[in-house]
User: Which sequence fits this backbone?
C-alpha cells in the first residue's frame, strides 16, 4: 500500500583518539650484582646502590602530548646525580622534579634509567626498614599513571666501620 524509500543522513563529528599512559617500575641492587630486575621488592643494606628502570608506554589510540615522568624517592634513598638516561641517552637530572620526555604516539614506549644510593647506617634502626618508591607519568591530554617498588633495608646494628677485623 505504500511505496517509496526513506533515506537518513547523519553527520558524525570528529572522533577524538585518546592516549592512555602506563608506567612500569623495576629495581635491582647494583651493589649485590643483581642481574634481574624486580617488579616489587628487593633486599639491600645501608650504603648500597639501587638502580631504577621506568618504562612508560602509550597504550591508547592518540598521541600523549608533553609527557612528564617523576620519581618520588623516599627518605634514606638518595638520587645519584648524573645517572639518568632516557632510552640509553644521558639527560638532565630532573627525574625527581619531573622529566619531560616529549610526546608519545600510540604504541610508543620510552625507558628511563637512574641510580640511587641508600643512606648510611646511622639513618636506619636495627632490623628491617621498608622504603616504598613511587613513580608517576602524566601528559597534557592523559590521566596520570603510577607504579611503586620497595627496598627492604636490613641493618644489624653495626656500621661497616665496626665490622672491619681491626675494629673487633
Assistant:
Amino acid at each position: 500500500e505504500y511505496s517509496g524509500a526513506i533515506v537518513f543522513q547523519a553527520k558524525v563529528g570528529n572522533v577524538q583518539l585518546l592516549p592512555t599512559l602506563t608506567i612500569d617500575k623495576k629495581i635491582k641492587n647494583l651493589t649485590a650484582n643483581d642481574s634481574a630486575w624486580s617488579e616489587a621488592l628487593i633486599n639491600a643494606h645501608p650504603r648500597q646502590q639501587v638502580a631504577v628502570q621506568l618504562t612508560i608506554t602509550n597504550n591508547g589510540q592518540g598521541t600523549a602530548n608533553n609527557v612528564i615522568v617523576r620519581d618520588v624517592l623516599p627518605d634514606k634513598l638518595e638520587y645519584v646525580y648524573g645517572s639518568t638516561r632516557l632510552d640509553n641517552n644521558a639527560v638532565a637530572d630532573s627525574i625527581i622534579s619531573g622529566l619531560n620526555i616529549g610526546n608519545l604516539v600510540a604504541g610508543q614506549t620510552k625507558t628511563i634509567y637512574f641510580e640511587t644510593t641508600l643512606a648510611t647506617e646511622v639513618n636506619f634502626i636495627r632490623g628491617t626498614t621498608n622504603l616504598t618508591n613511587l613513580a608517576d607519568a602524566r601528559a597534557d591530554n592523559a590521566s596520570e599513571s603510577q607504579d611503586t617498588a620497595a627496598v627492604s633495608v636490613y641493618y644489624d646494628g653495626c656500621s661497616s666501620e665496626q665490622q672491619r677485623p681491626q675494629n673487633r
Confidence is low (pLDDT under 50) at residues 162-168.
